[in-house]
Amino acid sequence: MRIEKGTTTGESLQTYQAEVTAELERILAFWLENTLDEAGGGFVGQIDSGGRVNQVAPKGAILNARILWSFSAAYRHTGKAAYATAAKRAYDYLVNHFFDKTHGGIYWSVDAQGNALSTRKQIYALAFALYGLSEYYSATQDAGALTLCRELFQWIEQYSFDKEQGGYLEAFSREGELLEDLRLSAKDRNDPKTMNTHLHILEAYASLYRSWPDQQLALQLEGLIRLFLDNIIDMNTGHMMLFFTRDWQSTADLVSYGHDIEASWLLHEAAEVLGNPELLHQVESVAAGMAAATLEGLQADGSLYHELKRTENHYDTHREWWVSAEAMVGFLNAFQLTNEAHYLAHSIQAWEFAKKYLLDKEHGEWYWGVYNDYSLMRTEDKVGFWKCPYHNSRACLEVMSRCENLLT
Question: Are 193 and 120 in contact (CB under 8 A)?
């Protein structure tokens, strides 16, 4: 599908592209100007919603891996030297402080001085380290980064892959023993398998496969795609199930609208990278169905409700920054798949919602989110274990690229 620049749709795409290009620079300027830890190295572990830096905050693997991904991807797309410098800083810190040089894998956290704090091996964190390192390799061709990617891939496959039931188990000790407490966060269920971890292994493996088309990696990536089709996505509803027993029985009747729209485009991307035409065709249909199902949570202001507890028919109505970012990409992907104009409108409206309610126009970056009355979620971080530049910078990069590809 190609759209002429002089048409109404073409002009909308050009405006959208120009605005997110500027927003990418604004987001990353915040991280360059506010988050470099000159005392402890790397990047600070926490900045609260009021802009106060916690110099003694622990540093999380997720945050640091996502910073690495964001600056690596931005450098690969723009060629800006400042982004390359920040990516190298993130790479060096991750390698020097988070990698377990004795047992392999990635620590969950280090202290403000870079000493190992929590040595648990959460597969979600290993996946993000792999994602960041593979993007760094794509941007720089640093052979050391690819070597580390292969090592992380082998660690995940050796310890986490369930050879009997398929999929990946959640969390391990430093030495690789399965833990009793498998939870990614206090908000999660203590189940051996989750949609969330599988989604981010999927994106990491797809990213790595672009640079390293290894046969075993191809088999595991295809297996992940088929797991989503066979076990994780409820084909009757178009929504994903979120928590599972080891043998893939669903344990919670929840809908996460942000994860549904995010997975719709990440699953499609993974199938494109793998290059199996029959599987890609199947995934395209499923991805479009997931985008359609996500519309159930769409609000008139362009946002998505956060979650639905179906057993109680209770909506969690607050809006988080990452959900709007993923809606921008997921609905634009659905437009490309279906040529249905309303999906383009939903993508742009998600951006309009972010501009109006989520962007901190005075201090930079995006707020964590807003409640249903649009008041800010002020107790949540601006920078922290879970608040990072990955979702919103990636949304900008994806929209920039997709608009460019759509316009003639």
Answer: no
HSE-CB at 295 with a 13 A cutoff on CA atoms is 14
Secondary structure of 383-398 in the HEC alphabet? ECCCCCCHHHHHHHHH
Q: Which DSSP category does 304 fall into?
A: B
Q: Who's near 187: CB < 8 A, 6+ residues apart? A: none
Residue 307, H or E segment:
strand 307-309
The count of domains in the chain is 1
pLDDT at 6: 86
39-78 pLDDT tens trace: 999 999 999 999 999 999 999 999 999 999 999 999 999 9
Q: What is the pLDDT of residues 331-360, one digit of tens each?
A: 999 999 999 999 999 999 999 999 999 999
| Residue 171 is assigned to a structural domain of this protein | yes
CATH number of the domain that 227 lies in? 1.50.10.10
For residues 335 and 1, give the distance between their C-alpha atoms in angstroms, rounded to a whole number: 10
Is position 56 within any domain?
yes
Residue 72 host element (H or E): helix 61-78
What number of residues does the chain have? 408
**Cβ neighbour number for residue 162 with a 10 Å cutoff:** 14
Q: In this structure, are residues 385 and 62 in contact, taking their beta carbons and an 8 Å threshold?
A: yes
Check if the beta carbon of residue 129 is closer than 8 Å to that of residue 152.
yes
3-state secondary structure of 269: helix
Range of the domain at 161: 8-406
Cβ–Cβ contacts within 10 Å for residue 126, how many? Answer: 28
Amino acid at 375: S
List the structure tokens of 398: 């994806």
| Cβ burial 245-259 (10 Å sphere, 16+ → b, else e) | eeebebbeebbbbbb
Q: Over the Cα atoms of the chain, what is R_g?
A: 20
Show Cβ contacts of residue 73 under 8 Å, excluding neighbours closer than 6 positions. Answer: 135, 139, 393, 394, 397
The segments of the chain whose pLDDT lies below 70 read: none
Under a CB-based contact definition with an 8 Å cutoff, are residues 89 and 38 in contact?
no
Count other Cβ atoms within 10 Å, centred on residue 143. 9
Q: What distances in angstroms separate CA 314 from CA 189, 191, 297, 407, one per listed residue?
A: 18, 22, 12, 41
Structure tokens at 190: 């203590």
At 316, which amino acid appears? D
Angle formed at CA 113 by CA 147 and CA 159, multiple of 5 degrees? 40
